[in-house]
């Protein structure tokens, strides 16, 4: 059974229990689901805030709020203590809106000038809305501290997080997103795949492979390189609003500091290569490890 299904089943079961409990205050507290091979754990916000390892932290760079902020937080390495994470695995963080990002194991544990925290919104002192949005980054927001924290890509600062799950790295879990293995070692589509996974796979699937559901699949039924002009596609990735505009539009713009010209080139090479590799992933990939 895919992790999401297990997560959902447990969350539903949990809500039923919560529903029958006399203390509705407790039932209203939001939860974070953490799943791995060893099973599923549900962390209630109030229980998280009551932990002895909760600390007060202040971000220097803050991707969601764009200005330093102070949070109650638990280090990810503490939160995930006892959760088995094999060396090649990733911690997949899923947000309320279908955004899903992979945090490499070493990023979570390495401590090389980068420490990850789960920031927890306290019910009676709610966080302000994220600039340009109508909701806060809470109840759970992953932030990075330390002198190397600025090197953590913006896509790895997920907010409104609902679950963390230990998974195989994406290309292993979903072989249909991989480039043709016979491509020359330096073919740009190879690096393009890596950049795609880091920057686009958080919201889009490829050949229906992936956990994200915020944006459309980028190969099925058609690949954007088949229906956008080259100039139109470049413009859309740099700034979707330069191509078309509507109120519910959600794709972010990728300015040069978020995606260099070279990276954009590599992503386009990957997309056009994949247009010739259409194949539907089996549902949920290989599922839970
Ligand atoms: C935060 C989520 C998010 C990220 C990250 C993201 N997109 Fe999107 N994208 C969307 C959404 C949502 C749409 C649908 C239109 C909208 O609401 O803006 C979209 C639409 C598109 C479209 C137009 C598809 C069509 O047929 O209309 C293309 C092409 C595209 N994205 C490419 C990319 C590429 C390439 C990247 C990585 C560099 C990327 N996106 C990163 C959310 C995202």
Shape label: globular
State the domain count.
2
CATH architecture call of the largest domain: Alpha-Beta Complex
- CA radius of gyration is 20 Å
Q: Let me know the CATH homologous superfamily of the largest domain.
A: Oxidoreductase, molybdopterin-binding domain
Number of strands: 9
Distance between the termini: 10 Å
- The count of helical stretches stands at 10
Extract low-pLDDT stretches.
1-26, 284-289
Walk me through the structure.
- By secondary structure, the chain is an alpha+beta fold.
- The protein has helices spanning 3-20, 24-28, 45-49, 76-79, 105-109, 170-173, 188-199, 224-227, 230-238, 261-274; strands spanning 31-36, 39-44, 55-58, 70-75, 89-95, 100-104, 115-120, 140-145, 161-168.
- It folds into two domains: 3-168, Sulfite Oxidase, Chain A, domain 2 (Alpha-Beta Complex); 171-274, Immunoglobulin-like, CATH 2.60.40.420.
- A hairpin with a 2-residue loop joins strand 1 (31-36) and strand 2.
- The radius of gyration is 20 Å and the shape is globular.
- The structure holds heme C.
- Heme C (HEC) binds at residues 99, 199-200, 202-204, 214-216, 218, 224, 236-237, 240, 249-252, 254, 259, 267.
- The site of heme C (HEC) has 21 residues, from helix 9.
């Amino acid at each position: 059974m895919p992790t999401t299904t297990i997560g959902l089943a447990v969350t539903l079961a949990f809500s039923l229990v919560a529903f029958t409990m006399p203390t509705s205050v407790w039932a209203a507290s939001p939860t974070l689901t953490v799943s791995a091979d060893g099973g599923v754990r549900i962390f209630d916000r109030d229980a998280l805030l009551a932990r002895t390892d909760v600390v007060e932290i202040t971000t220097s760079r803050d991707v969601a709020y764009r200005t330093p902020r102070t949070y109650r937080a638990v280090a990810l390495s503490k939160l995930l203590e006892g959760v088995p994470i094999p060396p090649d695995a990733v911690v997949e963080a899923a947000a309320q809106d279908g955004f899903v990002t992979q945090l490499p194991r070493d990023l979570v544990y390495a401590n090389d000038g980068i420490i990850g925290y789960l920031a927890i919104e306290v019910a009676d002192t709610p966080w302000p809305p994220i600039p340009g949005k109508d909701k806060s980054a809470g109840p759970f927001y992953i932030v990075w501290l330390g002198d190397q924290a600025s090197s953590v890509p913006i896509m790895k600062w997920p907010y409104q997080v609902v679950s963390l799950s230990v998974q195989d790295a994406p290309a292993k879990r979903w072989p249909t997103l991989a480039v043709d293995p016979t491509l020359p070692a330096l073919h740009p589509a190879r690096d393009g795949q890596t950049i795609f996974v880091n920057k686009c796979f958080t919201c889009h699937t490829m050949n229906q492979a992936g956990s994200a559901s915020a944006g459309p699949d980028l190969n099925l039924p058609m690949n954007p390189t088949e229906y956008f002009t080259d100039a139109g596609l470049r413009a859309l990735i740099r700034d979707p609003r330069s191509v078309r505009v509507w109120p519910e539009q959600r794709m972010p713009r990728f300015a040069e500091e978020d995606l260099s010209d070279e990276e954009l080139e590599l992503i386009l090479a990957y997309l056009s290569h994949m247009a010739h590799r259409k194949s539907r992933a089996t549902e949920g990939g290989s599922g839970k490890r």
